[in-house]
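Notebook, bench 3.
Goal today: get a predicted structure for N-acetyltransferase domain-containing protein from Streptomyces alanosinicus so we can plan the truncation constructs. The sequence was checked against the plasmid map this morning, with no discrepancies at the termini. Length recorded as 175 residues. Pasting the sequence as submitted so the record is complete.
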Amino acid sequence: MREIKLSDGIIALSPLRLDDAETHLAGEDEPMVRWLSGGPGTRAGVEAYIRHCREQWETAGPLRAFGIRVGADEMLAGTLDLRFAAEGLAPGQVNVAYGLYPSWRGRGLATRAVLLVSRYAADEGGKEAVIRVEPENTASVAVAQRAGFVPGKHTRGGDGTRHHWYIRDLRIDTQ
């Protein structure tokens, strides 16, 4: 697998590793479970997900899962998933989903991560990045807006969950 590392000098994004499982489980809290995973993680479940993510990297699959890392020791502060194919996306759209562990929130790290991954997505052929957010998730809405995403359409998932879409034209990232 080609190791990739994106950095802006403050944070780094790199593929999730099996040794991230313990930190991820320790950092999971109610908002992360509610907005991202839908249920509390288990060690076996998190390790299986990380192995799936590594396989996606190795096979150039549609999922690119990153750890959001901070500091010289690259401590795991959260995760970011970039999906080049997902239900409801048009060709050229990529879905961005992110979450920070509680002790890392409120520092602008999620916005930095979204901006870094947007440049990566553009380099990989993405035309528009999409962040789909439940309207009550005001912190995620704020990240999308700070990262230059603009409101788009509103959808409902199969379970009736409302999502507001925030969209960023990635072609501006390649100019």
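The two ends are 29 Å apart (CA to CA). The longest helix spans residues 43-58.
Flagging this for group meeting.
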